[in-house]
Design a protein that fits this description.
The chain contains six helices and ten strands. The protein is of the alpha/beta class. The chain has two domains: about 180 residues, Alpha-Beta Complex (Spore Coat Polysaccharide Biosynthesis Protein SpsA, Chain A), CATH 3.90.550; about 35 residues, no CATH class. It is globular and about 55 Å long.
Length: about 230
């Protein structure tokens, strides 16, 4: 609970990953990948209940063994490539009602820690915003990125008023989503079905905790970070 408001954390993990088959339960440094997220959520000072939404029996078993509540099995219609995370979260809120804040935690962000979850929740409360998402500093600044037209000519995606800074240190900070923490006030989320709007605030996280696993190369990078021999 935070500021008198109850918090539901939802881990979403479907079976049938095509990029890295079985990644959600792949053992890394002695723990299945999903357990890294479960452990972080269980360490949160503000999460009142942690649940898993999954269609996969193996993922469900691993999550339960790691101490995560699994109150339902996700419908097959919400476990396809076309199903959105927003629909999955809305489904979870419909099945487990009564919480004023919802937090989406994806198992593909295993380096996020409890303090990141709590920090995002605190930012949500202190800002008065309807939603807060975690971000990291962008690797490539949008002022220095281009589109290419059919003739091969370059055009900037964005350009500031007053001319283009020539030195990196003169650029304004740019941020991108890192996928680690999405938090929102439940009533607002159910109306909008999103965590992102013009009113959403960002919670900065360091690059070293912002790994988002999508490929085998990401898995190998995580193994090195986790110290797996």
């Amino acid at each position: 609970m935070i500021d008198g408001q109850s918090v539901l954390a939802v881990i979403t993990a479907r079976g049938g990953s095509k990029g890295v088959p079985g990644k959600n339960i792949m053992p890394i440094a002695g723990r299945p990948l999903i357990q890294w997220t479960i452990d972080a959520a269980r360490g949160s000072r503000h999460v009142d209940r942690l649940i898993l939404s999954s269609d996969d029996a193996a993922i469900i078993e691993v999550a339960r063994n790691a101490g995560c509540d699994v109150p339902f099995v996700r419908d097959a219609a919400l476990a396809t490539d076309e199903a959105s995370s927003m629909d999955v979260v809305a489904d979870a809120l419909g099945r487990v009602p009564g919480y004023e804040i919802v937090v989406l935690l994806q198992p593909t962000s295993p380096l996020r820690i409890a303090a990141d979850i709590d920090g995002a929740l605190m930012r949500l409360i202190e800002s008065g915003a309807p939603a807060c998402v975690s971000v990291r500093e962008a690797d490539d600044h949008p002022y220095w990125t281009f589109r290419v037209d059919p003739a091969g000519r370059l055009a900037r995606f964005a350009e500031p008023d007053g001319g283009m800074p020539q030195r990196r240190q003169d650029l304004p900070q740019a941020w991108c989503l890192n996928g680690a923490v999405y938090a929102a006030r439940t009533d607002w989320f159910m109306r909008t079905r999103t965590f992102l709007s013009a009113a959403t605030v960002g919670f900065p996280m360091p690059a070293e905790r912002s790994l988002d696993i999508d490929t085998f190369a990401d898995i190998e990078q995580f193994k090195k970070i986790a110290g797996e021999k």
